[in-house]
Amino acid sequence: MPAAPAGATSERGSGRFDPRAVVLAALLASALLLASTSWPLLLGVAAWLVPAWLLCRPDNDAVPLGLALAGLLAFAALTGGLLGGAGLELTLRRVLRAVLLVAVATWMRAAAGPGGLRETFRRALRRLRALPAVSEAAALMEGLDPGPRLVAAGRAAVDRFSDVPLRPVPLADAVIAWVAAESAGYRPGAGAARTRLRLRAPDALLVVLTLTPALALAGA
Length: 220
Prior knowledge:
It is built from 9 helices and no strands. It is an all-alpha fold and 220 residues long.
């Protein structure tokens, strides 16, 4: 097995599911949630998501952001529904749908991992290379730095700007110094190694089980 490039950063993801199956399952679950707010459908998606999360050995780095976003959207749906006169029962269904949409997206990021998502979308773009600009987008996708590298750059920016006076010249100097430092530390091709994808029986089962909440729509 070839050694990872110098400076490569580990990108965790599920050890059980192929990232392509994770992305497809998340898209199907999101489509079902957007199709209806019926209680059977919402509870069905929740019943699928809980074991899917527990079984996928996720990378939980994205969970705090997911929780914050879910809380924000839940509050917005609750206040908007009550102030708009939608009724408590419908408002609660909309709140649950908003939380589940964020939870599904967070699960997709945690289960597939940054490297798995990047490789999945890179392959999808490659299949669409006949469309204008898609080939260039696929090439850019291959060169993206891994998530931890971007997070480190963001933290460095926060540290550098924390004590800078809010005046044009000091801010410009701080930006130039940060860009120079990050550029000096960047090495082309030093991102994470390309994720290997391999579909197996559990991946097919994951996708099939994602569709079971659709039975609630069929019985509606």
